[in-house]
Specification:
Order of helices and strands: HHHHEHHEEHEHEHHHHEHHH
Number of strands: 6
Mean pLDDT: 93
Distance between the termini: 63 Å
Strand content: 5-15%
Length: 360
Amino acid sequence: MGVEIKLNDQHFPISPVFVDFLYRTITGKPFTGDWHDQLSEKLSSSHVDIAKSAAEHAGEVLASPDGQRYIGRAYALFVSLMTGDIAPLRDIQFRFHFVNVIGIPRNGGSYLTKEIYSALGHDPASTPGVVAHDGFPDASPFQLGARRNSWMTSLQTMAEYLTMVEIFFGQEKPRFGKIVVPKKLTKGSYAGGFFHQILGEAVEHVLTVRHPVACCISTYEKSGGWPEDGRFRVRSNIEEWMRRDLAYLGHQDSSLGAQDYFDVYLRYWEHYHYFIATTGLSAARNIEVVPYGAETMQRQAQRYHNRFESGRQAGEFHVFDKRDRHPEWFAKAEPAVRRVAELWKSVGLAFPLEAVMEAW
């Protein structure tokens, strides 16, 4: 007895960011964006622009022979991931060396990613955010809803991402035998084994860590400022990720809005770092943990410039001392930080407790 299952692009439509990427690739239009801007505190609306561009130019992409070929490649990789056809993935792993910068938002990852691109000779300002920055491929705590299975979303967006890697980096000069592909992979914490096994045993992970008080301050500044009533609300992508992660853990949306902003943030921070330790990232052979700070970040960035022989000095990493704000938060945060340090230790990850407790 044989069973035939038919799926098509109506079940798994192309991602808007992939359509926009292909449109710019096919037409030669430049990639723009400010993903690399460490100091910007404005809310990003790039997803709105990308969705609009994809809707306007999807027909042009689909009518192009190159567009059809790239889309076919993405769907072929998607099927390989669904069925466990390893050969196409092995070819990608042998050709590319992935360097993933993983950490909770507002943790210094954008700076390090920008510096790796600069060290490799790329202009970060003209490097597509979908290739370099977080958000894509998509991974999250499991969600099942109307026409959405988050595991399948992870598989499809990974297939599209690998296709974009082949397109964008395909003509790059290999370094030590492979083409280096840097990525700020914030969502890597949610599916460590997934990224580790698909991107290859040689994948390189850089874990950035920052004190939750400093992270929270930076998060609410990025999200529109401190809420007047001090309660949690969703205004930005980061705050939506906070809501989503806590919903996965059983917290009701209706209750979150009545809670203290930092209490909600601290639970998000703690469990994000639990995911790092428990979803398979620790199986990687090559992991570096970098605590947040001007000296540690610039030193790490300079290593990439030296390693890839850029002949340049790493750019300045800007740090602002905000430790006099919300002093009452530190007592709340310390037990959570220490729990994370113990869990990391149990899986062989060295949590930089002393440096993190400096709370830069």
